[in-house]
Amino acid sequence: MSTFEEKMATSSRKKSVTMSKNIIIRPDPDTSAKVQSAIRLLSETMQINANEPSLAFYRIQEHIRKTYPAIVQKQRELENLQVQIDGLVFDIEYSMEAVKTILNSECHFSNIQTQLQKAILLQKQIHLLNQQQIQQKLFGKRDEKLLHKNQTVVNASLSLSFEQKQTEQSLS
């Protein structure tokens, strides 16, 4: 017997005892059996209703309603992380290809190095030639000044000698 059935039976006994004080009535065994049967059926109905599948579905629905937004948010976060991971994987693959290409282009780098060495050598030669030209120009100007002085001296001496000859000729 369940606790509910016991409570109902106890309350019916109290009522019969109260009635018996006023009126002396003895409980009828047939009525008592019917009451017991009704209480048992009521108890079974309560248990069935408490464990009914629709109630279970309601509880499941409540649980889903509470947890679904969090699950959807986590799913979106996972999708965003997947997109980021895909991007990073692409970057890594591209970087690996670039490194492989650089390793395969060692001959090109050695060619560039030799060309740079040649360019540096040519630049040094050009610089030396420019310095020589500057020195020649400086020496050339100095020589021109010396030549010009020498020519003026020569011209002056020639003019003096010419004047002397003229004066000698005029005197003679």
TrEMBL record:
Aminoacyl-tRNA synthetase found in the keyword field: no
Alphabetical list of Pfam families matching this protein: BORCS8 (PF10167)
GO cellular component: BORC complex; lysosomal membrane
Keywords associated with the record: Lysosome, Membrane
Keyword Transcription: no
Location of this chain's protein in the cell: Lysosome membrane
Primary location group: membrane
Family: Belongs to the BORCS8 family.
Protein name: Uncharacterized protein
Organism encoding this protein: Didymodactylos carnosus
